[in-house]
Amino acid sequence: HVARARLQVASADPLRAGHETRYHPGEANLRMADVIVVNKMDSASIEQVNALMHTIHQVNPAATVVKANSRVTVDDPGAIRGKRVLVVEDGPPLTHCEMKFGAGVVAARAHGADEIVDPRPWAIGTIDETFRKYDVGPVLPAMGYSDGQLAEMEKIIDSVEADVVVIGTPIDLRRVIEIRKPAVRVAYELDVLPGSPTLAEV
To answer: FRET partner for 159 with CA separation of 20 to 30 A, picked from 20, 25, 63, 111?
Structure first.
């Protein structure tokens, strides 16, 4: 017997409208999905949302669309206000998906950071190579979690002249490296819009 999913769910980011058909496997996921979650509605422009919705209706008109805001949360928002912060973001969206910021930058700005410190002067090893190859902006991209990459990240974080580290990565870096500066963790919470079906309903 081959197990088959009875319900396939894909997410689509209006901040990257157009990417949903430009990259693999994103386009395949979009075409196969029974349910498409359009998140970050609170961050995107009307034009971006409309462009994404048009694409969804063109390539997968039968899919149920769940519309939602992506509320950024921080475990200690007060630690950011008025501080010089180093933001660590998930690397691949910055390098391969043409984004210049993620949840970490959104949280730092929303909670009154005085400055987002550019880590490039302290970059070493593979992270330095990433900065040379890609224009990722003034954030520290977490490109991988091998022992070598983690050691580089730990050394860079130690060296950067910042008051607080804002962790915007999918995993909590404090579980895999020692961060000796004060650090806060950022996450997204899905906030389904009124009138839209919920994931539980579909």
So the answer is: 111
Q: What is the pTM of this model?
A: 0.81
For residue 8, give the amino acid letter: Q
Length of the chain in terms of residues written: 202
Helix 125-133 vs helix 147-159: angle between axes, to the nearest 10 degrees?
Answer: 80
Q: Enter the tokens of residue 25.
A: 């496997």
Nearest to 144 by CA among 86, 88, 87, 90: 90
Q: What is the pLDDT of residues 138-195, one digit of tens each?
A: 999 988 788 999 999 999 999 999 999 999 998 899 999 999 999 999 998 899 999 9
**Secondary structure tally for the chain: helices H, strands E:** 7, 8
Helix, coil or strand: residue 128: helix
CA 101 to chain centre: 8
